[in-house]
Write a structure and sequence with these properties.
single chain
Length: 583
Amino acid sequence: HRKDVQISGLSGGQQKRVSIGVELLTKPGLFFLDEPTSGLDPGTETALMQLMRRLADQGRTIILITHATKNVMLADKVIFLARGGYLAWFGPPDEALAYFDQYRSERDRRAGKIEFDEIYAILDDQSKGKAPEWAQRYRESKAYQEYVVKPLAGKLSPEGAPTVQDAGRRPQPSAGANSRKVSSLKQFFVLSARNIKILTRDKFALGLMLATAPLVSLLDVVLSAVMGRDPFSFENGDIARVMITLFLMTIYGVMVGGISQMREIVKEADIYRRERLVNLKILPYVMSKIWVAALLAFYQAAAYTIVHYLAFDMPGGVLEFTQVYITMTLATLAGMMLGLFASALAPNASSAPLMVIILMLPQIVLGGALIPVPDFITSFTSTRWAFEALMSITGSGSDVARDACWKLAPEVQSAMTLEDKLAQGCICMGINMLDQESCNHPGLGKFRTAAIDGPLPVEPAPLPPEPARPVEPQDQSDNVAMAEFFTKLQLYEAEVNAYKLQVEQYQKDRVAYETKRAELQVAVAPAEGVVRNFYSNFPFMYVDKEDTVAYYAKVGFTWVVQGAICLILFVAILYLQKRKDVI
């Protein structure tokens, strides 16, 4: 009637019987019990001792320590120890009564037959002998010869060590032991079923676990209300907001996954050690945990992906949605593997949360989104690879990655004019980067001004040389020469007046040209600065989606790395579990 009650809901005596029952399930050849009947009612005590008797009749060795002597007569042999561990008796229980009865007084004998309880008083009575004396008396008794010396005579050499024949004799495993071995596959199915049953038994914990992912992902709804629904927009978007929203989604998966699994192994430490003694294999045990974690990862990743798409206007279609879901599944599974690793590493359940915190903080700080971190450091964090995959899938930097101008050396880029960038065909540098058809990058549209819509200003043609003043004749008395001079002088003055008009027009054209270029630079420079900042600090975010080979190679590589991280953690968990066999 108590079969559906959890162990924690049983009384102390019931828990003790359950523990004994768990040990009996393995049909042990040697069963050692310490005070198994303490705290039990007389009826239950008798039933337990009778069960021990039946097990002994089946060929098992039962050794138990007890101070309850009511059912001692069911035992084959009893041992009484005097203070200090001196052997005062070893033999059948009925002969023990006769042996110690001789040390009672005549008055005690007339009062009634000796009971086992009285033996304690006899051994504690210093007037009847000290502990070494009781040991000496037993060694001089016939019982010692009968039950100690004779049984050991054929098994011990004269020096007291095992004989050569005994040493060379190997115990053969019984047929029953071999028949109890269970294949790894069957162990996997049994353990998986047990894990599912444990998971579904606690309705509140199961409901909370299923509700956690949707509730946490609702933070995306809050972010969309604060930051806007379309961080990918050319006009009103922001690449920084894109990074924040996508990186937070990876954090949801990794952290919730890790926290949900942080006690899965350590909470069963005692059960695991007991079952390892009876042929439990490490691989099916760990795989049964991972399989259940994988089911939760598929569910949680679906919750994160669906809510994120509802909260934000994500680019792409069904293909991109599927790729985001796969990425989030791998990220969540990696987080769960990290939680299982922490659970296997933790010495007890109370230290598991601290282990998870220590392992999770690098996932946040070194994930590659908060600050630029060298690749060789971020390579060990699953969040970096999930974040890189998400940025690639959304195509936020696809046009920038396709522009060859951004692959030029920084000093070459700085020396290029707006005209050079147009001549080079830069699609995401110079004026073209403010055209959505050319460079669809989040937030660049906010830098676009009216000056961008017109043609490029044409630099004014250089001024012609200033007219040369005619040379005055040396002989001013020469009327003909002087007449020619005055004629040239009049022409010169007309040319000077025309030249002044040209200078004024040139200055106006030059001012207009420089003003237009300044307006273009004001629009282009900050836009280039934004792209340059993210392109140089976070180059892994940029991949050309139109280059399908490069795109799928990059996304596929991030998935492979996340799988490799899961595999490394899996091997580490196996090692930690195997190491517990030695500790």
